């Protein structure tokens, strides 16, 4: 038998590089977005501490910080993929939970209809149950 790879093996090797390239691009873009998000959070906190002509709203600061945390968690997911070639499900659930908390804090839940409120609470319960029940390091 020859040690020369077949055409199918060449195509398979090329296709296996596609996720790696895409995750690299995503990691690069998340890095840029995270830097901008941290800068935005720092500027908002600065405007809160040192009053200027532009008043800072505490909700805007929380929104910005939670967005930064979500970006960092997503970046961590990409980093885990590079190390293990698998995606950690718990990290994605934590990113979802952070996004839901951000949604609840930013959009006042007091003036929302009961069906949407029930759906939000149900989604939070599912996310929390998933984080608790899935063992750390569980990947797909």
In brief, what are we looking at here?
The chain has 140 residues and is mainly alpha-helical. It has helices at 7-49, 58-84, 89-106, 114-133.
What descriptors fit this protein?
flat, mainly alpha
Can you characterise this structure?
With 140 residues, the protein is mostly helical. The chain has one domain (7-133). It is built from four helices and no strands. The chain has helices spanning 7-49, 58-84, 89-106, 114-133. α2 (58-84) runs antiparallel to α3 and α3 (89-106) packs antiparallel against α4 (114-133). The longest helix is centred in the first third of the chain and has 43 residues, at 7-49. The two termini are 36 Å apart.
What is the share of helical residues?
over 70%
Q: Estimate nothing, just give the exact number of structural domains.
A: 1
Fraction of residues in β-strands = under 5%
Radius of gyration: 21 Å
Residue windows where pLDDT falls under 50 for at least 5 positions: none
Largest sheet: none
């Amino acid at each position: 038998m020859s040690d020369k790879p077949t055409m199918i093996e060449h195509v398979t090797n090329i296709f296996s590089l596609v996720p790696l390239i895409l995750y690299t691009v995503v990691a690069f873009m998340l890095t840029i977005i995270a830097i901008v998000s941290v800068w935005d959070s720092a500027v908002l906190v600065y405007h809160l501490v040192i009053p200027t002509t532009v008043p800072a709203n505490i909700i805007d600061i929380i929104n910005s910080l939670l967005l930064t945390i979500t970006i960092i968690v997503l970046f961590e997911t990409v980093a885990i993929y590079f190390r293990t070639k698998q995606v950690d499900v718990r990290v994605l659930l934590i990113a979802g939970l952070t996004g839901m908390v951000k949604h609840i804090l930013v959009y006042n839940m007091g003036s929302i209809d009961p069906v949407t409120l029930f759906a939000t609470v149900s989604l939070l319960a599912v996310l929390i149950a998933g984080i608790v029940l899935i063992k750390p390091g569980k990947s797909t």
